[in-house]
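Thread title: Can someone regenerate the structure for this chain?

I was given the following input by a collaborator and told the matching structure tokens would be attached. They weren't. Posting the sequence so someone can regenerate them.
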Amino acid sequence: MKNTALIWAVACYSVLSLSGCVVGPDFQAPVPKIAKNWAPVATEAGHSGTLESAIDPRWWDTFGDRQLSALVREAQQSNFDVQLAASRLEQSLAIRRQINADTLPEVDGTASYSRSRNSQVGLNDPSGHSGKQAFNLWNGGLGFSWEADLWGRVKRSVEAADASVQVAAEDRHGVQLLVIVQTAQHYIQLRGTQQALAVVEQNLQIARRSLELTQLQLKEGVATDLQVSEAAAQVAEIEARMAPLQQRSAQLINALSMLVAREPRALQQLLNAAAPVPAYGADVPIGLPSELAQRRPDIRRAEAQLHAATAAIGMAKADFYPRITLSGSLGMQAMQLSDLGSWGSRSFAFGPGLSVPVFEGGRLQGALQLQEGRQQEAGIAYQKTVLRAWHEVDDALVAYQANQRRRDSLQQAVVHSQRALDSVHQQYTQGTVDFLNVLTVQNVLLANEAALVDSTAQVSLSLVDVFGALGGGWQG
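Best answer:
Regenerated them for you:
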């Protein structure tokens, strides 16, 4: 008995010692290549440039718009896409817990009772009654089984599960960042649309005053019916521009309502009043180029996918080696319930099981090649993701500077157009020019003012694109 126990102890120690062996490649985090020719956009006179300083994780607050900040906070808490991503992360964690359970022994408890009677002419009756009467049978005990992870198959599966959890976490971060960016974009577009509507209303008032003046001049015999018709047509044309802007404003308010998980028009009263377009006047912190991979959720996700694919190779290689399973049971069995706890009712069984792949027709080799191919694919996808990130950052910074230059030029154009309109109105009143000149100059002013409003919004929108491309926001 002592020799048997000693043999079992030595066998178990050997198995546990071998379980430290892990086959397959160990994951090495890739080092993303920094764009050699990329440099932050230099500051131009009167423009906001870039600084290689830490990005504010709550960059939307730097616009100085409390309503925007409040909407972003609400969207992060209530948005359905964020909730769905969080739910998928919880599911991934649950799968990881299931896989990690293979590292521990599985123990089951059993208990049963039966009353039966065996055949008198069949096999031996274990009850000793030769099948002449029924008997009771009580059973109870514990059974366990555990696979000795000799080659690290289970360890690699847990490693792959951890990487899959990281993928789900980065998916959630990506959704959070997207919701922040979309909320900021819709809000800026809404304020830009409201400003454009205000410009149209202002020009409508000017056109109506021109119509009244022309009608008065017609009564005095200075103007003609043609000039009155032209002035009335100008009023109608400007009025026609209001409906699309009002429609666009309502749609943007509904889009924001959807982002914060509210019903249509829920934010109508809150956002219906016009407000300035949120602006950011300082230099933009973009962080260090080497930190881009640490912020962008898509790069972090691609790295986690590469990690999972690398761990899967170890799982495939471990399938080529034998598997040893330790199993056993400890229980009690008696025909009388009063005897169930006695020493004589005990029963036990212990022993190892060995499974060795002998012939599988190339299935294991094919599975290994598949996992190696997936790792190669994940590596290429990582490189592509990093390169795309650099392109997005560079494009966003170029657009930010270009929109600032366009805005500055349009500001000058509006100033000159306003002066021209004041001058032509004075000349028309004096009778030195006809009303066609007034219409032409006013249309130019209206077009320039509308373009300036749009350009001002585009500057802020392109800045949102910069922060989104840099990957900042989900950390806050």
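DSSP finds eleven helices and six strands in the chain.
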